Amino acid sequence: MTVNDAVAKRISTLLKLNNMSQYRLEQQSGIQHGHMQWIMSGKSKTVTLSTAMMIAKGFNMTIIEFLNDDIFCFENLEVEQ
Q: What's residue 79's pLDDT?
């Protein structure tokens, strides 16, 4: 799984847990709809740290809380070197 795939899955999980729509997340995070669609569809090949921080902000959490999930374990990810 790519890092982008992991981010998209984490977003989906948090949307469900928080009973939140993607639109609301976009509004709270400041991420434009098109960019969020690229992330969620897997068309985006890289998610920057600043984008991940904005997503975390949209969920009212820190970046550490956002990344604190087994989905981000190095062993689970395809990381380009």
A: 74
Asked if 55 and 32 count as a contact pair (C-beta separation under 8 A), the reply is no
* pTM for the predicted model, two decimal places: 0.91
CA distance 21 to 47: 20
Counting Cα atoms < 13 Å in the Cβ hemisphere of 71 gives: 18
Cα 68 to Cα 45: distance, rounded to the nearest angstrom: 21
- The helix/strand/coil state of 62 is coil
Backbone angles phi, psi at 29, to 5 degrees: -95, -25
Spans of the chain, pLDDT less than 70? 80-81
**Domain covering 3-74, topology:** 434 Repressor (Amino-terminal Domain) (1.10.260)
Give the whole-angstrom CA distance, residue 28 versus residue 36: 12
